[in-house]
Amino acid sequence: MSRRPPARTHLPAPVRRAAPAATLVVLATAGLVTVGASPAHALALGAAGLSAVLLWFGTANAPDHTWPDLPDPERHGARRDVAELGWGVVGKDGRANGRATRRVRDLAERHLAHHGNPGDLADPDVARRAAPLLGHHVAHGLHTHATHGRLPTQHELHTWIDAVERLATQPPHEGTTR
């Protein structure tokens, strides 16, 4: 069995490139002391020169460091979307805005149709038949909005949404299909 010679350790490339300049700095420092400079000053000047050489050669081929990309600020369903939705419901006068109110009314009409009461809530007969399902106050408020465009307060809209959610969780009327 033959023995392998020990592996040679190679210095990293930046150190090998800096070696001649570092040697020159060390020799210049020794030369300063030889010609009569204060050893403390020569040593300080040599340390500064050696640091500059090592920094120069050590960072010459280093890759550029970049900051990671920021996440997309427009993520769907993020906290900002919820806040915009909440503030988007409020109108200028503190009442619910027309878009949110129309959306709740459309949902109510759709769920009422699933429960055997199709039609527009502007029709008094549809609103009267909706009262047992939604509650008299909610049915009257939806009818008033549909006929006169009266916008509900935030509390009224919340009550309407609760009534529509309750209606959505009830099984549909036996004569209709979902």
Mean pLDDT: 82
Overall strand count: 0
Overall structural domain count: 2
**Percent range for helical residues?**
55-70%
Give the helix/strand layout.
Blueprint: H1 13-34, H2 39-58, H3 79-88, H4 98-114, H5 124-134, H6 136-148, H7 154-169
Helix pairs in contact: 1-2, 4-7, 5-6
Could you walk me through the main structural features you see in this protein, from its secondary elements to its overall organization?
This protein folds into 2 domains: about 15-60; about 85-170, no CATH class. About 60% of the residues lie in helices and about 0% in strands. The protein has 7 helices and no strands. Helix 1 (about 15-35) runs antiparallel to helix 2 (about 40-60), helix 4 (about 100-115) packs parallel to helix 7 (about 155-170) and helix 5 (about 125-135) runs antiparallel to helix 6. The protein is rod-shaped, with a radius of gyration of 40 Å.
Quick summary:
With 178 residues, the chain is mainly alpha-helical.
Which terms summarize this structure?
178 residues; mainly alpha; 2 domains; rod-shaped
